[in-house]
UniProtKB/TrEMBL annotation:
UniProt GO BP: thiamine biosynthetic process
Organism classification: Bacteria, Pseudomonadati, Thermodesulfobacteriota, Desulfovibrionia, Desulfovibrionales
One of the record's GO molecular function terms: transferase activity
SsuA/THI5-like domain boundaries: 46-255
Protein name per UniProt: Thiamine pyrimidine synthase
Family: Belongs to the NMT1/THI5 family.
InterPro entries assigned: NMT1/THI5 (IPR027939), SsuA/THI5 (IPR015168)
Listed pathway(s): Cofactor biosynthesis; thiamine diphosphate biosynthesis
General function of this protein: Responsible for the formation of the pyrimidine heterocycle in the thiamine biosynthesis pathway. Catalyzes the formation of hydroxymethylpyrimidine phosphate (HMP-P) from histidine and pyridoxal phosphate (PLP). The protein uses PLP and the active site histidine to form HMP-P, generating an inactive enzyme. The enzyme can only undergo a single turnover, which suggests it is a suicide enzyme.
Catalytic activity: N(6)-(pyridoxal phosphate)-L-lysyl-[4-amino-5-hydroxymethyl-2-methylpyrimidine phosphate synthase] + L-histidyl-[4-amino-5-hydroxymethyl-2-methylpyrimidine phosphate synthase] + 2 Fe(3+) + 4 H2O = L-lysyl-[4-amino-5-hydroxymethyl-2-methylpyrimidine phosphate synthase] + (2S)-2-amino-5-hydroxy-4-oxopentanoyl-[4-amino-5-hydroxymethyl-2-methylpyrimidine phosphate synthase] + 4-amino-2-methyl-5-(phosphooxymethyl)pyrimidine + 3-oxopropanoate + 2 Fe(2+) + 2 H(+)
Length: 328
């Protein structure tokens, strides 16, 4: 009896000692996580599922990063937050990033997730709009500067002179007839318009990719200074983000649970069905067999640069090797 009690005390003493050693180690491990902040272009939605997944599944933490993901949107553009030092990483359309760089914000592409254009202009056939020039003299709602470059290039190429008005979070201005056409992403606003009761046969849809404007969209960016001063942090964030997107596409239901938790926290007027459509459409856009996942190809970069030059939006762009830094 005495010997058994002694053994138990010895075991508990040993376990307590090991725990005492382990706790500082765990605390030290947490303390070594490097803080970083990511700002997406828009409010929480499946467009950014890979980043939310990487946060929720611990992929950033496993890479040594204590990541915070902010709410984006028109009042919090990534360009502003990176410029002010309130975020180290942001998502941009390639054309937007190039124009920001031309304006002095030295952005660098770390990973390219959407290699093709999903931008649409949508009108109603009942309004007599069937070809691009039918938009002449019409009111067209267009997003802010983070998203509008491809639409401006489309207008120029097609000889369209339209009156543009600001477009916010919804397409209500189009549904109510206040504009003749609206901007849309195939994975977002198009679905919202159809769900609002308009039959696809009633719509004229101008897919900008069909008009020689198949330009890359969402990519992961940092400032050139960040890549120079802390390349390992940039590598870690890029690796974890790529892992997050792969996991999201392999586990769409679980990924949607994570997305909807961010949507609910932001009190946004959307639903799971719409977010499921978005994730499915993004998977199709992001996993084309002819595109290396997460990489910006030289050919697509050159096409975007040339489009901006032809549209008179940017006189010069940096060399591909300077702008795209594959840090994975």
């Amino acid at each position: 009896m005495f010997q058994g009690t002694t053994r138990r005390r010895m075991v508990w003493t040993l376990l307590a000692g090991l725990l005492a050693l382990a706790v500082p180690c765990l605390a030290g491990s947490n303390a070594t996580l490097q803080k970083a902040t990511l700002i997406p272009q828009w409010e929480p939605q499946a467009q950014f599922a890979g980043y939310y997944v990487a946060l929720a599944k611990g992929f950033y933490a496993a890479e040594g990063v204590d990541m915070t993901i902010l709410r984006g949107g028109p009042s919090r553009p990534p360009s502003q937050l990176l410029r002010e030092g309130k975020a180290q990483f942001g998502t941009f359309f390639l054309t937007s990033a190039l124009l920001e760089r031309a304006a002095g914000l030295r952005l660098v592409n770390l990973a390219q997730f959407v290699p093709h254009s999903t931008v649409l202009l949508i009108a109603k056939k009942a309004d007599g709009i069937e070809k691009p020039t039918d938009l002449n003299g019409r009111r067209v709602s267009v997003w802010g500067p983070e998203f509008r470059q491809t639409i401006e290039a489309f207008f120029q190429r097609q000889g369209v002179t339209a009156t543009t008005v600001p477009q916010g979070f919804t397409v209500n201005i189009f549904l109510r007839g206040a504009v003749s056409a609206c901007s849309a992403m195939r994975y977002n606003e198009y679905h919202a318009i159809v769900n609002a009761g308009l039959d696809p046969d009633e719509l004229t849809v101008f897919a900008l990719a069909d008009y020689g404007l198949d330009l890359p969209e969402d990519g992961l960016y940092a400032l050139e200074e960040t890549t120079r001063n802390d390349p390992e942090l940039c590598r870690a964030v890029a690796r974890a983000s790529i892992q997050g997107w792969r996991w999201a596409f392999e586990h769409p239901d679980a990924a949607l649970d994570i997305v909807m938790s961010h949507v609910a926290a932001a009190h946004l007027p959307t639903n799971r069905m719409h977010q499921q459509w978005m994730l499915t459409q993004l998977r199709q856009a992001m996993t084309a067999p002819d595109e290396p996942f997460g990489a910006l190809t030289r050919e697509r970069y050159a096409a975007a640069a040339e489009t901006l030059r032809q549209a008179g939006l940017a006189d010069t762009v940096p060399d591909y090797e300077v702008f795209h830094v594959p840090l994975r």
